[in-house]
Amino acid sequence: MPPTTRTVRIGSAHGLHARPAKLFAQAAKDSGIPVTISKDAGAPVNAASILGVIALGIEQGDYVTLTTEGEGAENTLDLLSDLLSTDHDAEA
Known about the structure:
Helix content: 25-40%
Order of helices and strands: EHEEHEH
Structural class: alpha+beta
Shape: globular
Radius of gyration: 12 Å
CATH superfamily: HPr-like
Largest sheet: 4 strands, antiparallel
Number of helices: 3
Strand order of the largest sheet: 1-4-2-3
CATH topology: Histidine-containing Protein, Chain: A
Distance between the termini: 40 Å
C-alpha cells in the first residue's frame, strides 16, 4: 500500500510556534502510526517530535505535506489537517 499524503495550508496566525506545534505533535503521536511533515521541498521530520516540527519554521499561509501509511491513514490525516488549518492563535 503506497503512502498517503496530504498538503495543508497553515491557519495559525503565528504559524506553528510552541502551543499549536505541541497540539499537532501530540495528535500525531496519539494516532499510533508514523507520520512525517515537510515544508516545501525540505526533508520530512517526525510529526510527533515537537522540536522537529518547530525547527521547520512554519509560518501562517505556508503549505506543508503530511505523509503516513497503514490502517487509519486517511482518518489520521483528516484530524491532523484540521489541526493545522485551524487558527489556534485566535482562540487565545
